[in-house]
Design a protein that fits this description.
heterodimer, A: mainly alpha, B: alpha+beta, Rossmann fold, 5-stranded antiparallel beta sheet, elongated, binds adenosine-5'-diphosphate, binds magnesium ion
Chain lengths: 314, 372
């Protein structure tokens, strides 16, 4: 055997090792991907099946004759507790709570970040530290104090109603929930925007000041239009958290017509009149998950970009 | 009364005093350059004039009016920033018109002003682009356009050329000078580049650690530096600053420098300076000789009264085309001489150099101040 032969066989061995490495890596990735997608897959196929097919067949099998019946029933007729009007009303409850809560907490977070980085005041680090601390407060410890505050707000709303004929929305469970989520989310949104704006050039603010722009003009005309990545990150984060929240929802709007989607879904699944309608449950769960899925698909690529943007100073 | 007057201006960040009593003035239409090493407080001073930093004490007057308490937009000032600070979300046109929009100037007037400025700066074809789609030089022009469109009383520039490559920097420097000549507007210009300072200024303020070391016209700063710092900072290659001893032998005063081989080099100074040196606080001082005052004998200034020729060992030769720089050693330091471009010198050779002592300056090493 010559030296050259040895080199060739070495190179061959290395190439083979590389191939094996690839196979192992992609194999593992594939397995985990399948594992993660499995529940979604089962939900999806089950929601398109009839009850007969579910009882008789394989959980993983594709539906023989796909039907939207279960989706229609979940939306319009499924029973939530004693009322059987489907989940549509609760879906809108969630929308009515999430959209204002996300919008308000994002705008306030942006304003906080703007002030904390560009209009520094004495003690700004302390304020930011406290805001940061708010991110680490567990949900559970907020429950009781918040219930007291909401109680006071509700009482104030009743007073308003008896004097002005309207409570201005104070005490309405949906408004209450939105308020809770704004307060709880503010720490996170402030953190996101503060870090993003810390890397935002101060000279732009100075230039705008020389141009005669005021505090809010600089915010709306200069800061906000240049914040798309971090706005997307914040909106996705807040939307997913608030939409998926169950604890606050069940604590402050856990009964009656004001229930948000998550609580209603739980009730659909727990309302058993005879057979468990898996296809309807799955369809309801899919409907509940749809908005967050859509948000990810539409804005997902900005999400990654936005997360990176804070990391690398531009 | 001068157009711009800064008196005893102080600025503190917390307990740190960044500007320690600045006094400057500029006549109408003048070009004041603030020059100094990084971190000496040039930007802080400029921001104070602009109103972007509140001042701790002192006074700033523009055209006779106290501006220290006025908002930046009310001072009738325009500023060009180091990073250009163009609004990334707006087009070039939007950037230039933003200030006018904030001042509620009617659309027709805005359009006319944009057209005027874009003609002056030749950026008409860029108006629809975003700053991200422009080259460095184009951004620079747009930033100047944004300042120019305001037609202010005073222009402020904060190192506007430091982000450009060398060639473009020289071009834009000329452009700024032309702008100053055509508009006649007073300007304050910050740079750490002493060449920029010399070429642009009608007045230079050399700053160090929050103080103005010297304030004067460029030739004054260059030829008569009052401190070692100014002498060293202005000029390229830098002034040779050499430790020496004053001696009075038989009525003629000279300074004595140690040579590399242990001998001494004796440079006779003129009568006038000699008297000052003898009266000075110390026999040990620092001699400052600019490279162009140290040449080959044939290239020496014929009108100089006190020229000393001495043989020196040349260690390094750096031809630079128009000039040849030769390095020799004196008083334990490298000394740069500036010879004619075609001077015949070689490294390792001994040659005669002419010391123009008319141009030499002398400093007290303890106070770093000028003696003569
Ligand atoms: N906002 C600030 N807070 C504290 N120190 C500052 C601030 N801005 C500038 N400084 C300090 O003031 C000094 C002068 O800064 P600057 O005016 O930017 O210098 P230059 O423009 O000459 O490089 C520096 O030491 C800098 O660290
Ligand atoms: Mg600076």
């Amino acid at each position: 055997m010559t030296v050259l032969d040895m080199d060739v066989s070495d190179a061959k061995r290395m190439a083979r090792m590389r191939v094996i490495n690839r196979i192992v890596i992609y194999g593992l990735l594939g397995i985990f991907a399948v594992l993660y997608l499995m529940p979604l897959f089962v939900m999806l196929v089950t929601s398109f099946k009839t009850m007969d097919e579910i009882q008789g067949g394989n959980m993983l099998a594709l539906p023989r004759s796909p039907t939207l019946d279960a989706w229609v029933k979940a939306w319009g007729q499924a029973c939530v507790g004693l009322t059987c009007n489907g989940i549509s009303g609760y879906f809108w409850n969630s929308i009515k709570m999430v959209v204002p809560a996300v919008a308000v907490s994002t705008v306030l977070g942006a304003l906080n970040g703007y002030v904390l980085t560009k209009w520094r005041f004495r003690g700004h680090t302390l304020v930011f530290g406290l805001m940061l601390f708010a991110c680490f407060i567990p949900f559970q410890s907020v429950l009781l104090p918040m219930a007291t505050i909401l109680g006071n707000i509700t009482r104030f709303g009743i007073t308003l109603r008896s004097t002005f004929g309207t409570s201005f929305g104070l005490g309405d469970p949906t408004a209450n929930l939105a308020f809770v989520h704004v307060v709880y989310g503010l720490g996170f949104t402030t953190l996101f925007f503060r870090n993003y704006y810390a890397a935002f050039p101060d000279e732009l603010i100075k230039a705008a000041q020389m141009d005669g722009a005021g505090f809010f003009q600089i915010f709306w005309r200069i800061m906000v239009p240049n914040s798309l990545p971090i706005i997307v990150v914040t909106v996705i984060y807040q939307f997913t958290n608030i939409w998926n929240d169950y604890l606050f929802a069940s604590a402050y709007a856990g009964t009656g017509d004001a229930m948000p989607m998550t609580v209603a879904l739980n009730n659909v699944v727990n309302t058993s009149t005879g057979v468990v309608e898996y296809n309807v449950n799955m369809a309801a769960a899919m409907i509940a998950a749809l908005p967050t899925l859509i948000i990810y698909v539409v804005a997902g690529r900005y999400f990654v970009r936005g997360l990176m943007a804070g990391a690398v100073k531009g | 009364m001068a157009f711009l007057e800064i008196s005893d201006l102080r600025k503190r960040f917390g307990s740190l005093e960044i500007l320690k009593g600045i006094n400057l003035s500029l006549d109408k239409g003048g070009f004041l350059v603030l020059v100094g090493p990084s971190g000496c407080g040039k930007s802080t001073l400029l921001n104070s004039i602009a109103g972007l930093e509140p001042i701790t004490s002192g006074d700033i007057r523009i055209d006779g009016r106290r501006v220290a308490d006025l908002h930046p937009s009310k001072r009738d000032i325009a500023m060009v920033f180091q990073s250009y600070a163009l609004y990334p979300n707006m087009t070039v046109e939007g950037n230039i018109s933003f200030g006018m929009e904030m001042r509620k100037i009617p659309l027709a007037e805005r359009k006319a002003a944009i057209e005027r400025v874009s003609k002056v700066l030749q950026i008409g074809h860029l108006l629809d682009r975003k700053p991200g789609q422009l080259s460095g030089g184009q951004r620079q022009r747009v930033a100047m356009g944004r300042a120019l469109v305001r037609d202010p009383k005073l222009f402020l520039f904060d190192e506007p050329l430091s982000n450009l490559d060398a060639k473009l920097r020289v071009d834009m420097r000329t452009e700024i000078k032309r702008l100053h000549d055509t508009t006649g507007t007073s300007m304050v210009y910050v740079t750490h580049d002493q060449v920029e300072a010399m070429t642009l200024a009608t007045k230079i303020a050399v700053m160090r650690d929050g103080e103005v070391q010297q304030f004067g016209i460029p030739s004054e700063i260059y030829n008569n530096p009052t401190t070692i710092f100014v002498a060293d900072f202005m000029g390229s290659p830098a002034m040779n600053l050499l430790p020496a001893r004053v001696e009075n032998t038989g009525g003629s005063v000279s300074v004595v420098l140690a040579r590399a081989d242990g001998d001494e080099l004796r440079l006779a100074v003129g009568e006038e300076k000699g008297k000052l040196l003898l009266r000075g606080p110390t026999p040990n001082l620092i001699v400052g000789i600019r490279p162009e005052a140290l040449t080959d004998p044939a290239g020496a200034d014929r009108h100089a009264k006190n020229v000393v020729e001495a043989e020196c060992q040349i260690e390094v030769v750096e031809p630079a085309g128009s000039d040849t720089f030769a390095v020799t050693r004196l008083a334990g330091k490298d000394v740069v001489a500036r010879l004619r471009g075609d001077a015949l010198v070689h490294a390792g050779q001994k040659t005669f150099l002419a010391f123009n002592m008319d141009k030499a300056v002398f400093f007290d090493p303890a106070t770093e101040r000028r003696i003569a």
